[in-house]
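During the reporting period the student researcher (J.K.) took over the structure-prediction task from the postdoctoral fellow and processed the backlog of single-chain submissions. One of the processed entries is reproduced below for the supervisory committee.
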Amino acid sequence: MLIIIIHHKSQFVVTSFRLTNAKVNVIASDLWKFQRYALIENFKNRLTLPPPLTFINLTFIFLKYVYRKCYAKCKECYHPEVRAGKKGMCP
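J.K. obtained the following structure tokens:
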């Protein structure tokens, strides 16, 4: 009788440990994914050139920004399905 009680208690401990472990693994996985995303964003936003040459990199970023804005505006002007009902500077 004592052996059966000890066996049931040990099964309960093992089961509760597995449940706790599963919960911790889910939280750890979510935390790892968030930290990985933050690290990738950090590397993506870094400048590629060393400090004496950062003006070149910043100029490139500015030109890319202007190009994207102009491209979006031209796309809006030349594609009527995009500007459906919009009033603007387009002919």
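The committee noted the following: The chain has a mean pLDDT of 80.
J.K. will present the remaining backlog at the next meeting.
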